[in-house]
Structures are given as structure tokens and as C-alpha cells.
Amino acid sequence: MDDASIPVLVGPTAIGKTAVAMALSAHLPIEVISADSRQVYRRLDVGTAKPTRRERQRVPHHGVDVADPGERYSAGRYAREAAGWIAEVRSRRRLPVIVGGTGLYIRALVDGLFIEPPLDPERRRELEHWVGGLPAGDLVRWAARLDPGFAGGGRQRATRSIEIALLTGHALSNWHLRARGEGTVAPWYVRLTAPRPVLHQRIKVRAEEMVRRGLIEEVAAVLSEGHPGDAHGLDGVGLREAVQYLHGKRSRDTVAHAVATSTRQYAKRQETWFRHQIRGPVLTLDATRSPDEIAAEIATAWAQR
Q: Of the chain's two ends, which shows fewer C-beta atoms within 10 Å, N or C?
């Protein structure tokens, strides 16, 4: 294995990636490079299940709180900035560990992204107007129809897939395939898994805890800053459901259940993506065990790679 390789810890939401990363810090001098498209947004801590301030003091995290909720943060920007964070960590003679569940971010860093060709401005404006009027469900269906490789996601990701497919004549997933080999990281994958009932129970507990800890109040504070309900930072699982309540589209007592339902669907898409999209050797570990036990196994395997 290349000495430049980097551990990449992946798995569905609520599987316990943060807890394992924290436990791994007892074995290796690590800093975390977050690969989570929700945790990049400031002031949305509860709704994105960010590591706590105490955890971030114990183990430095990069890629958390780097954009405002109304700001578009692309996979391309992530790849560029993450490459810089990785270089900084290595300069301190510490080990960068990529931790997250956003497959597109990991792909951008590992495989590279295509360079977008010039897009006709007038056609793009017309398309944005049309897409802006579509309900979220229709938007996702259009994205899947135009790009068989579309892995799901919110309005931002679906809009991007539609835009590229219609304005370039080729699906975004095909562009990504063409760009492979241009990444900046040699990954050493660790994939956490758990039986579906176990994962669903963890998701249920997390959703209820989010509401108890102030998910709705947190989203209300961001909306009060003038951001629209479909702002980039609010267009995510858990956050959308809070926006719906605050806009009078659901009752408060349904929020936790709705968050859990959406999260289960998202976790299923993540698991499918990681089963089929990550390439090369993968250390697959049972996440029903304690974080300390998993971390010890990762550290041993890393030393023996």
C-alpha cells in the first residue's frame, strides 16, 4: 500500500462514524477531514449531527462550519479545500482521516470531477426557472430519468443532475466516470455496516434526540436571518422536515417521525452507493460492536496494510 494512502471511514448516517473516529484517536495521531455535505454549514449543529465542541477540541475536524446556510457548497469546492486540509495535517506529521457519508464528496476527492464545459446562459436561466417551479419529488424523478446514475439527494443535487444532462447532452454520472483518475487521494476504505433493524433504531433515537435538543429552534433561527426555506443549507434530511413545520405544513409532533423516515430512506441510498461505487480493497466492519473495539481493529489493520 502506498505510504500516501489515507483512511476513509464511510457508512450510512447514524452508523456511528464519529464515535469510531474519536476512539481511533487513542491509537493514531489523527485529524478528521469531514466528508458530510450538511456539516459544512454554520449554525446548523443539531440538525446535521455535528461532532460536539468537546469532540472537536479533542480531535481537530476540517470541513465543518465552512459555509453560510444560503451559500452553495459544491463537491468541486470540497475537493479543492479538502486537498489543502490534508496537506496541512500531513505537514504536522499527523494522519488525516476522511470521515463521512456524502459519496459525491468522497468521489470528488478520490477520483476527481469533470471540468464543466461552457453552458449557454440563456438556456440555463430558462432551465432554472422551470426547475424552480417543480416540487421536490418531481425534481428527483426527473433527475433519475435523465441520469440513471443519479444516487438521490435534495433539490441542489437533483437540479445539478438535470442541468448538466439537458445542457451538455450527457449525464452527470457519465462525466464523473470520464474524470476518474484525476483525484488527489489514495483511499484505504473502512466501511461500517449494521443490520437494518439496528440502524433503523439508531436513526429513530437520533431523530427524537434532535428534536429534544432544539432542531426546530435552530432552523427557525437560520430562517430568521432571511434565508429561504429551500436555501442550500436547509435542503437536507432532518432540516427539511423542520422547515415544513415552521411553514405550517406539518404538526410539531410529526417532525421526529418524519425525520426518521427520511433518514432511513437516505441511509438506504448511502448503503447502496458505498456497496457499488467505492473501488479497491475495503475493510468492512460490524458497527454493532463498541467504537473502541472497532477502532482497535482499524488501527491494527492500518499498521499491517
A: N
